[in-house]
Amino acid sequence: MSIIRGVEYNKLNDLLKDYDKRWRLFFSLLSSQDKELCEFIKTQDREKYNKIIEVPVTYNKPDEYLFKIAAIINSHSDLIYHDYRFKTIEEYGKKIIKFSPKIDVYLRDLLKNGLLLEYMKRQKMDIEKPAMYKKISEYMDIENKYVNIGYFLCGFYFNGNKNIKYNGKIYKDYNHFVNSIITDENINEVADSFQKDCFIISWQISSNNDDLSIYERFLHVINMFDEKKRTYLKELKIEKNIG
Q1: Element (H or E) spanning 170, and its range?
Q2: pLDDT tens, position by position, for the chain (243 residues)?
Q3: What are the distances in angstroms from CA 222 to CA 87, 129, 191, 196, 214?
Q4: Could you give the CA distance from residue 146 to residue 6 in angstroms, rounded to a whole number?
Q5: Torsional class of 33: left (φ above 0), alpha (ψ -120 to 50), beta (otherwise)
């Protein structure tokens, strides 16, 4: 047993019970190899202690450092990152959509930096759920090429794309959203804004059930908005000439 900064820990796994709530403290203690904490870890499991002290301290990425140590303490622990704790990977994806269209950099870093795939591999999802693992790997690649697209696609993958809240209103699906938002009068303005809105682009891509790859769907969405805008401007020009 050890009492660390007022909290009692009986087993090594107990360190993870409030890992997300005390992440700043744990980073400070682990990165400085606090004597009391190190002695407790060493007493509980010498092999894991040796692995922990070998993890390079990344002062500019404290959450990633703690993530790797949590994996050593218990490879089957919850998905813990920064001050987040998820019992399932589905909870992670739903949180992305709950925050949308805003972007949470910590949730995004989990995907972008390959940590989500690391977690999935530890849970043997690469073997037991290969299709899911492949999909998340694809989203990670997209995120590193098209910022925030892979992030929202990952969210829709786990959350689904029905009954989505956007600007305070819930839309039953993407078509309902488009039909409610786009009119002939605002197509030019909306097309421009939509092309810059990664959340809407990702929503449209996730709603497409064709056989196109995600990259092809992405280009299709951009081309679709361009085409709508060109058609509107052409019709507007004809009307002005007639008038």
Answers
A1: strand 169-171
A2: 789 889 999 999 999 999 999 999 999 999 999 999 999 999 999 999 999 999 999 999 999 999 999 999 999 999 999 999 999 999 999 999 999 999 999 999 999 999 999 999 999 999 999 999 999 999 999 999 999 999 999 999 999 999 999 888 999 998 888 778 765 556 666 666 766 788 988 998 898 765 556 656 666 666 666 666 566 556 556 555 555
A3: 36, 32, 9, 10, 13
A4: 45
A5: left
Q: Select from 4, 134, 173, 22 the least CA-distant residue to 85.
A: 22
Amino acid at site 45: D
Neighbours of 47 (CB within 10 A): 9
Amino acid, res. 11 = K
